[in-house]
Amino acid sequence: MVHRRGVWVLEEAPSLPSGPYKTYIVLAYQQFGTPFFVLQENVVFVRGVKAMLPITTGVIPFGLVMGTVTANADLSLLQSFGMNFFVFAGASQLAAVDLMTQQVSILVVVATAFIINLRMMLYSAALSGLVKNQNLMVKALLSYAITDQTYAVLVANQEHLKSDRDKIVFYAGAALCMITAWQIAVVAGFVFGNFAPSSLALDYAVPLSFMALTLPALKNKTYYAVAITSAVLSVVLKELPFNTGLLLSGAIAICLGGFLTRTRNNANR
Amino acid sequence: MPIDSAYFWTIVAGMAIGSFSIRGSFIFLSRWIKISDRTRELFSFIPAAILPALVMPLVFFHEGSSQWLMGKERLTVLFIAAVVCYYSRSMITTIFFGLSILFLINQFIP
Asked: Terminus-to-terminus CA distance in chain B, angstroms?
């Protein structure tokens, strides 16, 4: 098919890796650059959305719980939505609403939420190289969209993404899907209550999806050792206050990974 | 007692600033930070180190209904689903399979 500026272009994606995506046919509006470029952008974006879609099975019931909890705490829809929009960190929001109903002091609530979210600093560090040369807007949006799921889904799929630009576009697709599912679920939970049938135990999709995101990250024995250490420690340290058990387990497991790879590198020399 | 509006929005503002500065921390400093290959290798441990620590307390301490599995049906299903995930390499298959097995256990195993 001939490509011209400013025309609708129907084209089968030619250079995608074989697999479930090779039969994509995308309708792309050619406005900037080559049509091929537009096509690639769209396909990678769609792949991001599609990678996140099954994970929303776990996000939606969690959002319904969040919406129901805010409704039960006599918050308005605007307050519920505003908190979601500005904070956008589910676990810390649940903890904060619980503390607010007990009239705990502002400083304690904010500090508790801060510690619960602190693990995302690791994601920020890991993603910093990716957006190093992007403008402030891209950096801000990418930062805002950091969640356990968006980070993990990018890492789990990164070997299929050729350039940094592809990674960012993929991440954007995944993040848009995540944010949309979360916001709609919370509003739905607020308005209709928690209508997810409890017999289906949809909340269990959260651990399932995290497990499925962990496996591709386990590239060799060292990674298995790190994952098992972290799993065991998180159970042992569960009683520590303010989610510090999670942080400590993660930190020790990363140190173990560093230690194991260090001895291996020395041995090779 | 209803939550006071000013109290609520002050907390939301604090949380919003907190969570955004955590998320943006290294990203906004990235221009001035040089990441060595060794650091990048350490970053590659993050998913393996954090995700299991998020999952295990949720699953291990869950009090299930099955007497036969001592209330640990979620833990059991997680291991089975991990095997399925390892061979299928598919998120949809893993979630669908895990939820189905859990449903069946909850329905039919006392």
From this structure: 41
pLDDT of residue A264: 55
Question: B94 to chain A nearest CA, in Å?
Answer: 7
CB proximity A60 to B under 8 Å: no
Tell me the chain B residues in contact with residue A215 when contact means C-beta distances shorter than 8 Å: 82, 85-86, 89
Question: Do residue A254 and residue B95 have CB atoms under 8 angstroms apart?
Answer: no
Chain B residues with beta carbon closer than 8 angstroms to that of A155: 46-47
**CB of A69 closer than 8 Å to CB of A94:** yes
Residues with pLDDT less than 70, chain A: 1-42, 263-269
Whole-number CA gyration radius for chain A: 21
Cα Rg of chain B, angstroms: 21
Residue B110 C-beta-side C-alpha neighbours within 13 Å: 0
- Surface-to-core class of residue B67, CB atoms within 10 Å of its CB (0-12 exposed, 13-18 middle, 19+ buried): exposed
Count of all residues that appear for chain B in the document: 110
How far does B93 lie from chain A, in Å, by closest CA? 9
Three-state DSSP class for residue A27: strand
For residue A263, the model assigns a pLDDT of: 61
Reported ipTM: the value is 0.89
In this complex, is the C-beta atom of A258 within 8 Å of any C-beta atom belonging to chain B? Answer: yes
Count of other CB atoms within 10 angstroms of residue A27: 10
> Could you say which of B15, B47, B78 has the minimum Cβ distance to residue A207?
B78
Whose tokens are 């496996």? That residue is A215
- CB distance A245 to A238 below 8 Å: yes
Taking residues B70-84, what's their average pLDDT? 89
Closest CA to A127 of B20, B25, B54, B49: B25
